[in-house]
Records
---
Amino acid sequence: MKILATVKRVPDPETSIKVKPDGSGIVTDNVKWVINPFDEIAIEEALRIKEKVAGSEVVLVSIGGNAAPNDVKEQLRTGLAMGADGAILVVTDAALEPLVVARALAKLVETEKPDLVVMGKQAIDDDSNAAGQMLAELLGWPQATFASKVELSGDQKSATVIREVDGGLETLRFPLPGIVTADLRLNEPRYASLPGIMKARKKELKEIPIGDLEKAGLDVSGRTQLVKMEPPPKRQAGKLVESVDQLVELLHTEAKVI
Amino acid sequence: MIEWSEQHLMIRDAMRRFVEAEIKPRLEELEHGDTPPYDVLRKMMRTFGLDEMARLRFAKRIAREKAVEAARARGEDVPVEPAHEADGATDGGAGMQLIPIIELCRYCPGMVTAMGVSVGLTANAILSKGTIAQKERWALDLFTLEKIGAWAITEPGSGSDAFGGMKATARRDGDGYVLNGQKTFITNGPYADTIVFICKLDEGNDPKERKVLTFVLERGTPGLTQSKPMRKMGLHSSPTGELFLDDVRVGRDHLLGETEDGPARSGAKATFTMERTGVAAMALGIVEQCRERSIDYARTRVQFGRPIGEFQLIQLKLAKMEVARMNLQNLVFRLIEMAAAGKSMELAEASACKLYAAQAAMEVALEAVQLFGGNGYMAEFQVEQLARDAKVLQIYAGTDEIQVSQIARSLLAG
């Protein structure tokens, strides 16, 4: 079976993020870029399915630049080093909103014809948590989001997915092809092994200019606009109070939370 | 080579993530507890496929040696392939070996020592001097770290003058040998499964004229005692011990090469060269870590109303650290280039490399402690550990003084 796994390049979660003074985005100098951690989990899941189902193929897909400072190829090579078979990069330097991302992925699904698309439940940079659901809608495919366990039927015609929902676990079964988005506890991604890193060099990384997809009918117009980014307010110094009564009083009059 | 390649950086990133996830949180127990380093090292081997690579490399080498042996048996004249050309730039090259060393040394130089002695010294000693049967019996398990190796040469009375003062003996006994002696400062000594034991053949002759023989011993052999880990200044994640041999009987199959007439010190130069160049990579890891920690601290530590990085005496320390890092990285680049070209350093160059690397690591680590002030003296900020660990680089694998004499000897020769 063929599995597409999505890869978004995001700042390393360990990096301390600074917002540009004009509020147009974050300062990207000296930021270390990594694969979105949820996408990494998606890749791992795709690889595990591949290891179980003989003859499977895992193809990574990403949308982004192919040269500094927006170069996504490094993250794709890391995914190839983990064990994916090939990668496709839709080349654009524009920051796309989730709907455009989902439309572009839908175009790729038309040509690649995967049986399963595994995605991170959200990217840790803008936390939209939308592209997976939108892709399912655009394709008219079933979806299981926030997956914490994925199991395929013996004939690989359907998938059973356990989702972590408020108050418990929900089990869904749906026919393939379909979309799964990965939650944190789905698996623990592997490290790229040294032989994997050596082999990654020879694997195909196909670049498709976004214009090619536009010619094929992709609509890149968005509906949302980034107005302003601002850092969270600086934490104020704490205040010591004399008594519980005073605390309640201040929570009421000053903090206005009760 | 003027910079790390994209692949090198991928290896580095993967390795760094592993070290920060698996070793950093357990530093306390590895450095100050008595947890041996082997499980973490094995996990590293498995995670990165290093064990599988070692198996493939070993199988290739043994197949080649068997082919040569068969050809010789048929009376054909087969040229001996130099080992480094045959094994050398296997995919990935020397960077594959050096990057894990650098990354481990940012937290645990002791781990590199434990691994290096097992794989680099012990397994390679068997690989270079053993018969094919001996290699198959002992070397492969050491290369994959399934078994832990120790290489025993130093004795209480012989350190730098290892062969001159050596008291450990082998006496012939029927078709086998009886071994006696005491070895000390043996890395992995307390836990080793396979021990390469170097001693002199006692034929009742003058000790100075005795042949040097090398044996392989297995853990649990009657008469062999392995001590508990010794207490030491640093390098706590590398267990060090003593070995006591009291009438240990072994068959001829335990004598490396199964002949008394092999060139006794053959391979010693290659071994020393490898050990010494490895120290450059270790020093780079220590220096990188001290430098990064120091930069962070200089930026954030405020005294007299400003970050201490604004004071020139602190700037001098940072600048010196950067110079050391650049020099060490260039040495490592040279090592990678040489290996790719199928060359290895002459002993004198390796000695110069090691002398500089050890001194640079020591100096940078002590400067880092000083830069951190009181915090530097506390374990929490880790630089004191690296400073204690760095000291060993000036002592083991040939002291600074021995390196100096070897460099000078080569300069004055001819």
Note: Chain B touches chain A through 17 residues (CB under 8 Å).
---
Amino acid sequence: MSEARTARGFRDILPTEALSRERVCAHVQEVFSSWGYVPVETPTLELASALEAAGPLDHSSFKLFDSDGELLVLRPDVTLPIARLVGTRMVDYQLPLRLRYRQTVFREARGWRGQARAFTQIGVEHIGSDAASADIEILLMLDEALQQSGLADYAIAFCSVSPLRCLLGRCCEQGQVGGDWEHAVLAACHDNDLVAVDGLSRSPGVEVAYGNALRALVRLNGGAEAVEQARAIMSGIGGDHDLLLLERSFAEVSQKRPQTRFIIDFSVMSSFDYYTGLVLAAYAPGLGIPLASGGRYDHTLAQFGLAAPAAGFALHLERIIDTLSQDVPGGAVCPSGLQQAAPGGGG
Amino acid sequence: MAANNIVAEQCSSSGDDGQGLVGRALRIAVPKGSLYRDSVALLADSGLDTSGLDDPKRQLVFINQGVEFYILRPTDVPVMCAWGGVDCAICGKDSLLEADLGLVELADLAFGACRFVVAEPEGAGQRVDERYRNRGVLRVATKYPNITAEHYRKQGVQIEIIKMHGNIELAPLVGMADRIVDITATGSTLRENHLVIVDEVVASTARFVGNPASVRIDPRVHALAKRLTKSVRREG
């Protein structure tokens, strides 16, 4: 009996949960479909060399050799396989392409932390347009999908990576720092390590004004006023056009969806470094990890043979289901006995 | 203690309802052990109601005005915060590095300074080098296998790690390991056990961290980070 089990981080799904997954999926796919998105599917296993066209693979992917001696990878995300698919088999299609998918992704994770190693992603890729309207379409569709999945309480945080990249470029042009320093700052941003960004901003060779701007920019969080603050921080540095786009996107989505909480947050940097503009993440209170994430990746498709801008996002089905069932750690309520037993507490 | 605590202040300024978006008090993890006293003092100094924390006895949870404190072992802080069990936490950089869970590090709190070092028995240098030449691999005892593996990977030195939970100094003394990787504040434990530092790995101090969701959707977290940074500057 003891061997009749599933591998760590993989599990079976019984009818009650399977039904609610099916329901959420149907609602979300219906939203995508109503925006004109059509479904695609990619293989579970990919040639590692094919995905590596876009850069080295994350060490968290599962890999194996097949009997031909080919190194295969269980898809660690869906964006790269779709970029490969579009770049090789859909080059004759009229742009923009609007694609949607529901696929499992696999990521290795260390043990003893309760982390899954298989995730269901429901997502979209909007290929062939870098217009502001495409970013807005992505944001509105994400909001609609979250709402239709039945979630009552969520927030969508987004920003653009362009102002940060512009600022880092200026630091390198004007100061005594180079590509290694820029790489270190981006790595610290990806790691969410703002303390390391602070340290790097004070490196010898970084102009003091730019260092100050860097520390302030990565901490910007708020509503429309955050874009104003970003403009003040970036004054004389650049990035005006990107901030204008961000401001317009924020104004338009806020106006069209007054009930939804949209947040500008310049620390929303994904662990994927292929994003070139918009970066977004949706969160639910009490769940430490995002419900959905995505962004704009204008240079990735070129690596697969089609020079076209693109943007997209994926919803994490399991996290949505957990949130709907209020099965999230921060949602837990302390037993009332505990509250009364706090002699020093209670204010 | 400030009468108007920071949580209430932040929420009134952001037009919130006093409970933030999450609709409940801000949850903060506080590490027990060597970082505990300084953590509590700093939280109090930043305006939070820390009643009861000065003498927690065996109580693990304190529910005060607008804020809840959860007391746990420093090495368990990252995973609890990453899951969203608490919004934010005070945690040593050592535990953050070892856990590597993508928490947002918002402020360096400056206290709890220590260094990760590589140490070996006094006078063992030649013997260790020889063993490495002969075996092609060093045996290293540590409480921090991930930090140790990363350090030696960067150096291009192959090692076998022996994970221990305390008194790491013993491992090389009984010949179980060639070297240790451990944290030290003053180096006195190492000296008393006749170990010498042969390499520096990384420096650590206490950090204020939040999980990505709370940092981005709950303005109270950034506000607290600012207050803590100010308190640190005042004391520094």
Note: The radius of gyration of chain B is 21 Å.
---
Amino acid sequence: MESKTLFDKIWDAHVVKKVEDGPDVLYIDKHLIHEVTSPVAFLGLEKRGLKVFRPENTIATPDHNVPTIEQHLSIKDELSRTQVETLTSNCEKHGIRLYGLNHPWHGIVHVIGPELGITQPGMTMVCGDSHTSTHGAFGTVAFGIGTSEVEMVLASQCIMQPKPKKMKISVDGELKKGVTAKDIALYIISQISTSGGTGHFIEFAGSAITSLSMEGRMTLCNMSIECGARGGLIAPDETTFDYVKGREYAPKGEEWDKALAYWETLKTDDDAVFDTEFSFDAADIEPMITYGTNPGMGIGVTQYIPTGSGLEGSDKLTFENSLQYMGFKPGDKIGGHPIDYVFVGSCTNGRIEDLRAFADFIKGKKKAGNVTAWIVPGSKQVEKAAREEGLVEILEAAGFELRQPGCSACLAMNDDKIPEGKYAVATSNRNFEGRQGPGARTLLASPLTAAACAITGVITDPRKFLG
Amino acid sequence: MAYDKFITLRSQAVPLPIENVDTDQIIPARFLKAVERKGFGDNLFRDWRYDKNGQEKAGFPLNDKKYSGKILVGGKNFGSGSSREHAAWAIYDYGFRVVVSSFFADIFKNNALNNGLLPVVVTPMFLQDIFNEIEKDPQSEFEVNLEEQKFTIIATGKSIDFEINTYKKHCLANGLDDIDYLVAIKEDIEEFEKAR
Ligand code: SF4
């Protein structure tokens, strides 16, 4: 039999039909929807007089627009409220499960999927949001789609896609103290650039990857889209199975045994070939921070901003514009630069381990006076765990407060906007111009680095405090 | 039927000789809060077309009466950035049926094809020829022949072949989209579900 990669195995098992000189018809196991990219899809469906084909396989939650305080009140922004209400009525009309505001399972789509055991190895999953790649952590082929494709999945449980190429990225060795999954992600993107993965689906492998927790793996796969890839996945193992077991939607009893037997086969064959391969040494990775306006513009937190010498033409112009937007000078040391905001949250780093890491770090210390901090849990369940574990008291004693779940300042569609010209150390995934509000200056980093910056008020290497 | 059938198109063209036109410029994020696919054409290139007070900015090609037509001609790397499909909607809703460039961002190209908007890739030299022709005579016409996959500058008779896969070509020519196709193969999908 032909040798296959893990990606091939999952993809090929879901091809309903191959269109000659065209895309594959790919069957989708689970479809997540939210309020921003679904309303036009439902309208399209209705215009064609179609019903949702498999309503049980779509799960909905409003996350992009929702406020992160006073969620029990009606949403103030009229357009946001209309989008959220439209999601609710569409779900009611079409028999789709919705975890709405204030539901104990409400949260960011990519946080609640894994949390509820909806995400399982070997599945195909899509959502009208590019960070659907998060679910790849489970050995799942998961990727973001456009609104037409949301309509396709609603209408037929399928989408039409050409099969991407395959890339392997290995990271071997032991991670140094203070270095997290987020740093691996930012490091890889800084090395292969924001277009290094274009046209590919990535498999992450190597000892530094398999030693990550499930949540760390999610952070890494979440960011795979930022190097231009369609998505990224990691072969499922004991860590994966332990995480899924017992969750709400996970298979139970005999079903579990059957599922597990299949999941254990989900590995790349020894002699399978990738179109592109990279390998990195874990020992080379430092706590990372970005200095520019795309996620590929990242450096170790103790390093100097590149000088840009050697760049030419439009690359040079892009680099200069980017630094100008950020208010940084080429060759400057990034450490010690004052900051104004800290945002901990998003589907990249808004899970309980992230809040634990942050709380652990700031325990017994005080928030710097010049810093406004927004700590936003990724879901209601994360919020609940943070309360039960006493993280909220630790945060409050240090001058921080825990907000309510949602995408929040990750894309600033709600009121959580960073003001123009202000510096925000953010644990989210995109530092594009204006992403966190018009004129906002975003520096992407891990929750640990964010914690160090929050208590010192300047860009700080977290290792200084780690003994 | 999802959109108009694409038959051979003969039209003037609107030039936009700017590189790396990203989807945030095509349709700014603040217009993504809509729940209907309506009015996106009005906000196409919003911040380039209008100033803060909603007044048209002079000099932007879409505001220049001498240009019109169903063909938009853009610079290299058209449609980069966020994957928002609203970008393709906005261009289509404004009235364009064809976008010409020497390079398109992947996702934009797909989104365009999914919405009845034909992306035509030409060589950088040919792109320059088109810009030159429009500059010489803004009324100049172009022909897009989908069947023969040919783009022609009528005035000079110069033409170039463009690529499109057989499936997408069939869809465009018949005004069908992927959803029509998927609905039509429902039985295959049900078979697939049973066989798993
Ligand atoms: S947290 Fe950010 S990246 Fe994640 S789903 Fe929300 S907007 Fe998208």
Note: The interface with chain A takes residues 19-20, 24, 29, 32-37, 81-86, 106-107, 110-111, 114-115, 165-168, 177-179, 181-183, 185-186, 188-189, 192-193 of chain B (CB under 8 Å).
